[in-house]
Every structure is written in C-alpha cells, then in structure tokens.
Specification:
alpha+beta; six-stranded antiparallel β-sheet; two-stranded antiparallel ribbon; 17 helices
C-alpha cells in the first residue's frame, strides 16, 4: 500500500521522540477502513482492503516512506505531575499532506510496548478501539474538531485486563498533529530552552504561521491555541460531550479532540455529570471543563516562559495577561453556541442569563439534553402560537421530558417572548437550530451494546451506529430507536480507559 509520506516531526532532534517500530501481531483481520478519509490523505482507495493494507494498519508491515517513532511528553494527570509519559502504546508512522493541503499524522494505537509504556503491555483491546472509532467519527460529523478514524484491525491475540483476557485490536487515527500541552511541559521541566524554542517554532510553522508575523510570536502562539481550545470546549459542551480525562497530555496544540478514553455524551442534563471510572472527585465533569481548559492552558503558557521574554518577571506578566483572556473568549463561544441552540438570533444583552436559567430548568427537571433541543428545534419549525396541531404535538413531546411539565409551559412563554424581539425569520431560525442541534449522538448504552456484540464477532451494530452517526443532524425514520435515551436497566454509569 502506497502512502504519500512527507514527514516533518521525524526531522526534529531526537530528544522529541524515540525511533520505534510497531510490534507485529499474530493474525490481523480488518474490521473497518475509512475510505473517504483515506482518499483525503492521498491513499488509493482500491488498496485499502488488501492484505498488505491490513498488515500496515496492524503494524506488521512498515510502509515505504514511514519514519516510525514514539513521541515523548509529560503532563498533569488529574492535577498530579508526571515528568515522563509519552506514547506508551502508540507509534507515529509519519505524515501526509492531504488533497486539501492540510498536513496530518498517521498514528497507530495499540501497537506494542515503547520506552514510555511504564510497565504496560502497549496494546489495546477491542472495546476502546471501537469506541474511539465511533465517537471520533461522530464528532467529525457533528462539525467538532477531532482526530479521525482511519482503520481498525483485530490482532488475533488477547490482552489481559481486569476483566480477564479480551480480544486485541489496533486503531489507526489521523490528526493534524499529536503535539500536546504535555509535549511542551516535558522540555520546560527539563529546563531545555533550546528544545522549547525548536518545538514552538515548529508548531508555529505547521499550525499557526500567522503567529510568526506578530511582534511577540510566542505570545501569539498562546493566543492562537487558547482561541482554538476555547471554541473546542464550548462545542463539546453544546452537544453534551464529556471528555473524561482532560489531562495536559490529552490537550492537543492543534485544537482537536484527542484521546477519547472514558469519554461520554450525557443523557439527562446536569452540569456535574461524570462518567469516567477514574474521575472519583468529578474533576472533569461537564460543567468543569472550561476551568480545566483554562488551567491546562496556564501550564502551556508557563512552559513558554523562557522564550516569552529574557526577563523572567516580564515573561510571567506576558503569560498571565494572555491567559487571563481565556474566560471572555470562552464565554463568547459558549453563549453564542447555546444562543443558536435555543434559536436566539442574534444574541442580545440579556440572553446569557436566559440561557443559564434555561439550563438550570433542564437540570432541575432531569431532562434529556439532546432530546430537549431536538424537539425544541421541531417546535421552531412551526409558527409559534398559531394553534397548529403539529406545534401542539411538539409542545406535548417536550412536556413529556419534564418531571414538572408546568415548568416548561412557563418557560415556553418566556422563550416565545424573547424570539419575538428579533427580526429573524422562522426559516432562518429553524435552519440554524437544525444545524446545531443533533438528532443523533453516540449514546453510552448504544456504544456499550455495540462493543458487547463485537466481542462475539457481530459487527452489525457497529456498522449501523457508524452509518447513522455520519448524518447526525437529519431525521432518519428507520433509525428512531437510536434517538432514545436508555431504559433504566440500560443506563451506563461509568466508562473506562481500557489501558
């Protein structure tokens, strides 16, 4: 299989990585390959389902032009400092420049031990691989910046986890880069200013070339990463997504969602919702994600202090002043996005309070987050207050979501009054709401059921879920069961990393 590699990270000094080939597996078998993504990054789709391609995706064959390596980084994990992490079960094969002109990494996950495995086996089991494939592709379809799924392969081997022996798999993901906040932290902690500058210059050239033209390029780099992260976290929250492990080594400098692990989409809305089995204190709850992003970005700014200014005190001032702008930037993205979800176009001065009060109402009434906005969108498709049967049906559907339906009745009056204050046409409002309020999300119970089926060799639920989630904003009459929240016995209370 020919891959048009054009590697740049491998040209950096070797303190940024260790040369490392993936470890072969016993009996690779292709589960799924993403043909459209493969074409985008320059791979001939006719080669994708060959034995040779499967061997590449499994790590059994090193394709021509690849430069395999394991990246080194550090990070704060649940607030605790880990000075040396790195790719413990992943290999960067190399990079391609896509047909859209964008440079992307091709990365194998579950490809065996590396110097950074910290005692682990370097492998992945089938469940987390399928979860990441489904959720990353769903995020892409939702329009949220994310790493992508290129392929998934069974290994023909078992890996040992707490549950016992489980089927092994290798996941091939594609990202605009795999450099993280923790990559910068690693070199800062080692007091390697030259490496920090080399990495910063590399990231500016690769991702933020406009920063090179600024009077203070490294401050401009912080500002650019901060803006991307603020927008990303706001978009997560607007679809009810909870990352689960927002450690600094899981925050991409490119502004993409990375390392899905115990991620989840909440069903019933509550800002304190947590699913990650290892997040015992709720550090990464849905409503805490902005403050964690702010904290992580402060660690990024700290890592750049030696190159922000030669005077340490001035450098600290520059970094602090820059990071202090996060909350305002995030709030703008957050309220603009939620304003669109509620149909508040354009946003007015009192709308942030209205949005906050509305979300509290959803929490108090234990309302399903996705279904509320999905049916509110349907209601916006009717002339409000005209007594139309369809509109009445939408109202009743919304009332059925509430513990206290009368609370919705009062809220709808306020909502209609607010909508009457702008000049947005019904069609404009409805179209905007349809474009931001998904009908389908990867609900936890559906993902879990898909994984359990795949363990038995049944990939039909995986294929169906993947197909439905590729078009999340459209009604699909044959798949309405996938809109539904879990029954009490189907509720998933915790999600797991799989390491």
């Amino acid at each position: 299989m020919k891959i048009p590699f054009d590697n740049s990270y491998a040209a950096l000094p070797e303190q940024f990585y260790t040369r490392q080939d993936p470890k072969p597996v016993a009996a690779p078998k292709l589960i799924k390959v993403n043909t459209a993504l493969a074409e985008l990054i320059g791979i001939d789709p006719t080669e994708l389902e060959t034995v040779e391609a499967t061997d590449v995706f499994a790590g059994n064959t090193i394709p021509k032009g690849a430069s395999p390596l394991a990246m080194v980084y550090a990070g704060h994990q649940f607030g605790g400092w880990s000075p040396r992490l790195g790719d413990g079960r992943a290999i960067l094969l190399g990079e391609t420049i896509g047909t859209d002109g964008i440079r992307r990494d091709i990365h194998l996950k579950g490809s065996g031990r590396t110097p950074y495995s910290r005692g682990g086996d370097g492998r992945a089991w089938l469940g987390p691989v399928l979860r990441e494939y489904i959720v990353s592709e769903a995020m892409a379809a939702l329009g949220i910046p994310t790493t992508r799924a290129l392929a998934a392969v069974e290994t023909g081997e078992h890996v040992l986890r707490e549950e016992g022996p489980l089927p092994g798999a290798v996941f091939t993901r594609v990202a605009q880069s795999h450099v993280r906040v923790g990559t910068f932290q690693y070199h800062y902690a080692r007091k390697d200013t030259e490496a920090t500058k080399t990495l910063a210059d590399y990231i500016i050239a690769r991702h933020y070339p406009e920063a090179a033209k600024a009077d203070q390029p490294y401050r401009a780099l912080i500002e650019a990463v901060m803006d991307k992260q603020a927008r990303l976290i706001a978009r997560w929250m607007q679809v009810g997504f909870i990352h689960g492990v927002m450690n600094t080594d899981n925050m991409s400098i490119a502004g993409e969602t990375i390392d899905f692990g115990p991620c989840a989409f909440m069903d019933t809305y509550h800002p304190g919702t947590v699913f990650s089995s290892i997040d015992h204190a709720g550090r990464y709850a849905w409503g805490k994600q902005p403050s964690i992003a702010h904290w992580n970005l402060s660690q990024f700014a700290q890592s750049l202090l030696p190159i922000l200014h030669e005077d340490p005190d001035i450098a600290v001032g520059i970094g602090q002043e820059t990071i202090d702008g996060f909350q305002e930037i995030f709030s703008d993205y957050y309220f603009e996005g939620f304003g669109e979800k509620f149909g508040l176009l354009p946003l007015t001065e009192g709308d942030p309070d209205f949005i906050g009060d509305s979300l509290k109402l959803l929490s108090d009434n234990e309302v399903d987050f996705t279904l509320f906005f999905r049916h509110l969108t349907s209601l916006a498709g009717f002339e409000l207050g005209n007594g139309d049967d369809g509109g009445e049906e939408c109202v009743q559907t919304l009332r059925d979501l509430f513990k206290e339906p009368e609370a919705l009745d009062s809220w709808l009056e306020s909502w209609k009054a607010r909508l009457s204050q702008d000049d947005t046409t019904l069609t404009e409002r409805y179209n905007k709401m349809k474009s931001v309020n998904p009908v389908f999300i990867p609900r936890n119970h559906q993902v879990e059921a898909m994984i359990q089926a795949a363990i038995t060799g049944d990939y039909a639920p995986f294929e169906r879920l993947l197909a439905v989630l590729s078009n999340p904003y459209s009604e699909q009459p044959k798949n309405t069961d996938l809109e539904l929240p879990p029954k009490p016995e189907e509720i998933v209370h915790a999600t797991f990393c799989g390491t």
